[in-house]
Amino acid sequence: MAKIHPKSFQAIVSLFYRINGLDVFGMYRWLLEMQSWSSQKRSEWRLKRLEEIIEFAWNHVPFYREYWGDHGVQYTKIRSLEDLQRYPVLTKDVFRANASQVSADNLHSIKHRKWHTGGTTGQPVHYNRDLEQWTLAEAFHLWGWSQTGYVFGDPVGVIAGGSLVPERMSFEARIRSKLHRRLFLYGVVMSPALARDYYHRLRKHNAKFLYGYPSVLYLFGKHLSELGLVYDGLKAIVTTAEMLLPQYRDGIEHYFNCPVFNNLGCNDGGYESYECSLHDGLHYNDLQSVLEVDNTDCEGQGRLIITNLWNRSTPFIRYENGDLVTLGDELCSCDSSFPLISSVEGRTADILTFSNGQSISGPALTLLFGSMEIDGWQVVQTGPNKMEVRICCRGVMQPQYVEHIHNILGKHLSNEVDVNIKKVIELEKTSGGKRKPIWSEYDIYEKNEVSGPGKTDNCTSN
To answer: What's the rounded Cα separation, in Å, for the pair 376 and 368?
Structure first.
């Protein structure tokens, strides 16, 4: 087969997106153009978008009129970013309790899709997402990946969650994977046998980049090392979804002999961030969202508050997503105009490793619960081959939820692992009052150095 030139390949993919009303590459060119704007022009554009989304929320989302009114706030024209602080913070708990109401009354006129998170904090969130907002996010992903040396069309191996059952992967997702030359491997569990299989499949794909969860990529590299297999020739690895703990970064770079670039974001709320080659923080797209930090409890680092400038189907105005961050005071010396998140805390979980050698990691488990109408969940390893799934929900727990959990875990874990599912009135919290969705009560082979329920939480930077 003749090799496709990257520009020709990009043209084919661009046409596919535009046919579906998603001009990702056009939006990417717009982002690059914005890099040359003066700081004043950039600020004026952001202020205008902020005023438009606040006015839209007031006029078309009755929930916000009522919620703001309950806090003594009436709509007035936004004249500076500081005016945003007059509006009350929207916590994730309040949003979840009113999710069906935080939608525009002219939703039919907005191109959007229903979306949900798996709930990295143990609580799924359901919302709508504008296709225009999705397009912008995809464009910024192109910018973020370009920082690693990636050229569109380079073969990528993805070891992450996605559809937990391969045959249920949507047709659209399959097409996108092909168009992006991405080999999707299920990062739900990891074992020596699976690591060997993935090694050969990635070799056949000629993957030059890897993308996935830090904990899973760490385990993958560790198993390869123990098997005496070396995957060389990688240009970079991009991690996502959970904290890139120092031991994960060091281990991944050691096992694969290439640089690691961190990527974090939040679809509910809507922000994306990537490391550049200087690895001195995460660049976020300030043309997509206004980020604030409430650090009344801690100096420097504080609770992240997001106001999305694009999503009208479900506006996120001063939305607290659960991350603890520190925003950079100055622009990065790489000369990018995208500002920095200098540190992030949160989204950590234990690696659950069973006596049969299989390991399961936090981010993949969140995908079990995303579509469920529940109040929260926790997964706890209680023995060498025992796992307990705790579901918090109103009323009777749906039998199909129990069946779904057993089917998925049975697909990825052997029958040697005993899975007990039970309904609970309340989920356990850490001593600092946080919900930790995944942890082990049984120490075996592998354990993260993170706080579990009953341990101490400190407000510190990474």
So the answer is: 12
Question: What Å distances lie between residue 396 and 73, 374, 440, CA to CA?
Answer: 39, 11, 27
Q: Does residue 369 lie within any of the structural domains?
A: yes
User: Per the domain annotation, does 141 fall within a domain?
Assistant: no
Strands 156-160 and 182-186: parallel
Measured at the alpha carbon of residue 401, what is the angle toward residues 398 and 405, in degrees to the nearest 5? Answer: 155
> Measured between alpha carbons, how far is residue 398 from residues 45, 118, 125, 390, 395 in Å?
48, 18, 18, 13, 9
Tokens 């599912």 -> residue: 421
CATH number, position 412? 3.30.300.30
- Along the chain (462 residues), what's the average pLDDT of each consecutive run of 10 residues? 54 70 88 93 96 97 97 94 96 90 95 76 78 94 96 91 55 72 86 95 97 92 97 95 90 97 91 96 97 78 94 97 90 94 76 82 71 84 91 87 87 84 85 71 51 34 31
Token code pair at residue 328: 């950079």
Count helices and strands in the chain by DSSP H and E runs: 12, 21
Other C-beta atoms closer than 10 Å to the C-beta of 369 total 24
Q: What string of H, E and C letters represents the secondary structure of 273-293?
A: EECCCCCCCEEECCCCEEEEE
122: left (phi over 0), alpha (psi -120 to 50) or beta: left
Token pair for residue 418?
């005993």
End-to-end Cα separation, the chain, in angstroms = 48
| Residue ranges with strand state E in 219-275 | 236-239, 260-266, 271-274
State pTM to two decimals: 0.82
Among positive and negative, which fits the CA dihedral 245, 332, 159, 400?
positive
Total domains in the chain come to 1
9 belongs to a structural domain? no
Dig out the tokens for 350 from the structure. 């234990």
93 Cβ contact partners less than 8 Å away, ≥ 6 residues apart: 123
DSSP 68-137: HHHTT-------SGGGGGGSPPEEHHHHHHTGGGSS-TTGGGS-EEEEE---TTS---EEEEEHHHHHHH
Tell me the residue range of the domain where 380 lies.
352-440
Q: What does DSSP assign to residue 391?
A: E
* 2 domain-assigned: no
